[in-house]
């Protein structure tokens, strides 16, 4: 009934509904847990805090989760790190099959569903206290870059804000209590992106955050059409998708400010944030990080997340990978972890008969090397010897450049035995959560 009323209300009334929801969220997030976490973060060394929180978290979970009571060893200050290897991994299937035994509380549960990018959803429960602490860390991170709570903020996320029957080109709503402009990612196609940029110019946000593919599309429109912005954000904070070097450069050129990438997950994984040098730092106050080598400097992430006291993530195989600046020693410490870039899902790769694994970071630069003005790209593999390439381009001359250079550019990555099929599309298909995927590996599905 509430959704029906919202969908059939005028936009000004929908803004009021969004703001009323914002008031509810504000009260849930910005409470004593938030204030306490901010104070702790500002006055404590993060690595010292990590050691303390690891012991406290493991002991809390052992006494409050039926599932982990059978799996966690006794922990004390002397052995918590040594004992970590004795704890079995937690997988997504473990959570699906044992969620009722894993959770630590039965009351005041908040249901979160994740997994839209794969089509297989994962049910996770959280609690207001964990949400408040996570928001506190995000605000702490942003404040270090000059962005404070309450500043004008434009956000691009997966919320369904726009009714299906809407005819107007107003693809955003306002949360007045948080001074926030909320953009829909589901309408950010080529034909509509100019309206997004016009609204940005009117609203003049001091920060922008959200899905990088949409922020990048705005940046491309600004750069290609030499749009003069009437504002300059303090910083931009992409999240939820992989941010490539090319995307970052386009965004910073368009908005004339620094972009700080961040990694977490809907399940509640600990944070990894981009530093001023362009690399990435783990956030030890939010969790404990383990890395297992895949090949070269590519490592799988295994995380223990301190902000997951309801559905505890302990030695969780989240399915993401990172590229390190240099390989880790066997006896590495948390301070040794220096990340070059976030790869994302550890199956975000394609396969070559001749060259083995081709990671998405190696495909992100294809569009630039083709020499054409490519708006978006996607690489799909259903067969070992064939790659389907979906491209969004503006002009016929771009297609000529692509066809001229494609084989050479792709053979550098896959060798000479792979065939390529190019589809020119109006836009890249999005997942249920509104995200785009650069690579889709269907080899297991079709073989």
From TrEMBL:
It comes from Macrococcus hajekii. PANTHER family: CAPSULAR POLYSACCHARIDE BIOSYNTHESIS PROTEIN. Transmembrane segments: none annotated. Keywords: Ligase. One of its GO terms (molecular function) is ligase activity. This is Phenylacetate--CoA ligase family protein.
